[in-house]
Amino acid sequence: MAGEDELFQMELNLHPNEASGLLTIGNEELLGEHGWDLGFWAVLDEGEIEDCIAAIGHRGGTPDDEGWEIERLRAEVSDATGKTEDAEAITRDDSTGYVYILGSHFGSKDGPLQPKRGFVARFREAEVGHVTEDPAMELEVSRRSFVLHRIINDALEKVGPGLIPLGEQSHKALIEATIERGEKESKKWAGLVREDDYPINIEGAAFRENGNLLLGLRFPTTAEGRPILIELEGIDRLFDPGDALPEVSGFWTADAVGNDGEIAGVRDLALLGTGEGEELHLVTGNVDSRDKQSVLIQDYPGGRG
Predict the structure, then answer these.
(1) 0.85 cut: is pTM over it?
(2) In this predicted model, what pLDDT tens digit does every residue of 81-133 receive, in sequence order?
(3) What CA–CA distances, in Å, run from 299 to 42, 199, 255, 272?
(4) In-domain check, residue 134
């Protein structure tokens, strides 16, 4: 589009209207069906995932700062998997055409961790005929409570970078309270959250050219307060029959905490292919929002951002 170095602001309201992730629409037929020359998928973080996927499109032939539209994707979950909430990352595996959406895998600001935030969903972009029309898009959802939490924590302990010590308030509210709930209510996931774990907060995702999924963590950070990214192999196994699970194949750290920052986590990320390989674009920021109820901010005031 013309004016690629220019910025403009627009307001597109769709309840719940806090978008937490953005991804370009790659399917030209889908764009053409709507008369768009550019489009984005957006995920909203307050509600069930089937109600929180939107398409933003720019009508062809209109000025760059006009002609923008937003529609909610008509979707239905293919299998009843329980509640979902707090979608935070959206990305596409170009080798399969699947768009993946991940929940934060975190909890409320004062704990405990919440299983409904620990989901991974996906749909095939090429199968979306029209965003708002029947048939509804079939959305696969894997909500295997605390499975990624366990996989990531085990890998962090064995081969991960040194982590910032988990603060007393954060441990009590996010780890101890979760363990207590699992045992007291005899949850199926009881035992998957352990005393020496860290709470995991996912806020960005992108597929590498090798098919692995790169996850950006808002928390925890390295011992120096630097953001951590996790490379995950086999995210599709969550949707396959059987017991096979994804595996952590590596960790990345970024020397990026902003101006005069003390500690920062990942807020979003993107990977772009170049002639020389892959180029990582990273947004970093506070480890939690500026809320007096946040146990992370109580323990890490330097991470307010």
Answers:
(1) yes
(2) 689 999 999 999 999 999 999 999 999 999 999 999 999 999 999 999 899 98
(3) 32, 14, 22, 35
(4) no
